[in-house]
Design goal:
The chain is an alpha/beta fold. The protein has one domain: 2-Layer Sandwich (BirA Bifunctional Protein, domain 2). The chain is 30% helix and 27% strand. Strands 1, 2, 6, 7, 8, 9, 10 and 11 form an eight-stranded mixed β-sheet that branches. Strands 4-3-5 form a three-stranded mixed β-sheet.
Length: 242
């Protein structure tokens, strides 16, 4: 089947730093528009203000402190509709939200999860960091430490949520949780592995480059306005959360 022109590309929107709840709402709006074929596949890239998210299969015991204590620390807690357990997002972590139509990518959830892992593993190679999978788990590890968490939601084969790659994340932020419910592995970041500072923009460029390789689509950077999306409602969501 010949792809429509819009389906030959992945448009990347770099949102900068954002508040989690606002960007979750943005994802749902974009998911609905992707289902309606108003545009092609999108990849949102962002950093979040400190937040702990609880996935659909989260165990409350994996959150180690009370919400009230987290609030005093300025950390929000949000229950979300992605798969997986509990994770932490914060500055220095690159979060990628593909709004992809999986009918164009094999229509296979397990394959898609492996593609997200391969995207991150390939991006790590740009930094000469060796990422790998661990049997029985979703995500990417360096040695025995997790460097990227992955969790998704799919509605009518269109995705939301995605991956969270620790670039130069404040790793002590993970002390409030048992990340992804995994007791036996710690967490790390690209900066921790390399022993030097790494810019989020460096990681963004690596992800955009390897996205083309993994998903076999041309990747180009764009804006909400250039995509012809309802700029008043969606740009307000983005502007409010940056």
């Amino acid at each position: 089947m010949t792809l429509r022109n819009q389906d030959q590309h992945i448009s990347v929107v770099r949102l900068g730093r954002s508040e989690y709840r606002r960007c979750w709402e943005l994802q749902k709006q974009l998911q609905a528009r992707r289902i309606a074929h108003e545009f092609g596949d999108l990849l949102l890239l962002t950093e979040h203000e400190p937040v702990i998210t609880m996935g659909a299969s989260a165990n409350a015991h994996h959150l180690l402190v009370a919400d009230e204590e987290l609030a005093r620390e300025g950390i929000d807690v949000v229950t979300v509709d992605r798969g997986g357990d509990v994770t932490y997002h914060g500055p220095g972590q690159l979060v990628g939200y593909p709004i992809f139509d999986l009918t164009l990518h094999g229509q296979d959830l397990h394959r898609y999860l492996r593609q997200l892992e391969e995207l991150v593993i390939a991006a790590l190679r740009v930094f000469q960091v060796s990422g790998s999978r661990v049997d029985g788990y979703t995500g990417v590890w360096v040695g025995k430490e997790k460097i990227c968490a992955i969790g998704i939601n799919v509605r009518r084969w269109v995705t939301t949520h995605g991956f969270a790659l620790n670039v130069k994340t404040d790793l002590p932020g993970f002390r409030y949780i048992i990340p992804c419910g995994i007791f036996e592995h710690g967490v790390t970041s690209i900066a921790e592995v390399l022993g030097r500072d790494v810019g989020i923009d460096e990681a963004e460029h690596a992800v955009m480059e390897t996205c083309e390789q993994v998903f076999h689509r041309t990747v180009h950077e764009t804006t909400c306005k250039e995509l012809g999306i309802d700029s008043e409602s969606l740009q307000r969501s983005v502007t409010d959360c940056i």
